[in-house]
Amino acid sequence: xxxxxxxxxxxxxxxxxxxxxxxxxxxxxxxxxxxxxxxxxxxxxxxxxxxxxxxxxxxxxxxxxxxxxxxxxxxxxxxxxxxxxxxxxxxxxxx
Length: 95
Hints:
Radius of gyration: 15 Å
Mean pLDDT: 86
Shape: flat
Distance between the termini: 30 Å
Strand content: under 5%
Order of helices and strands: HHHH
Largest sheet: none
Number of domains: 1
Number of helices: 4
Helix content: over 70%
Structural class: mainly alpha
């Protein structure tokens, strides 16, 4: 009983943190690369995440993240830093 309550509380806390981080992420990226480019980059990151989900399947998060990161680095080149790519990837995963 107590364990369930703690897990619910932890889940809610994690969701709030993710929402806050995503809001901060979009504000940061908006200032850095502008609205149109954010949408374009985010859509590509989202498609890459979906492709990795289909290709690798469930439970292979490390492999999927490595593949998507490599793909996005190849696509974006020096337009985005590795940190920006990671933020886009995490945002696409948590949508």
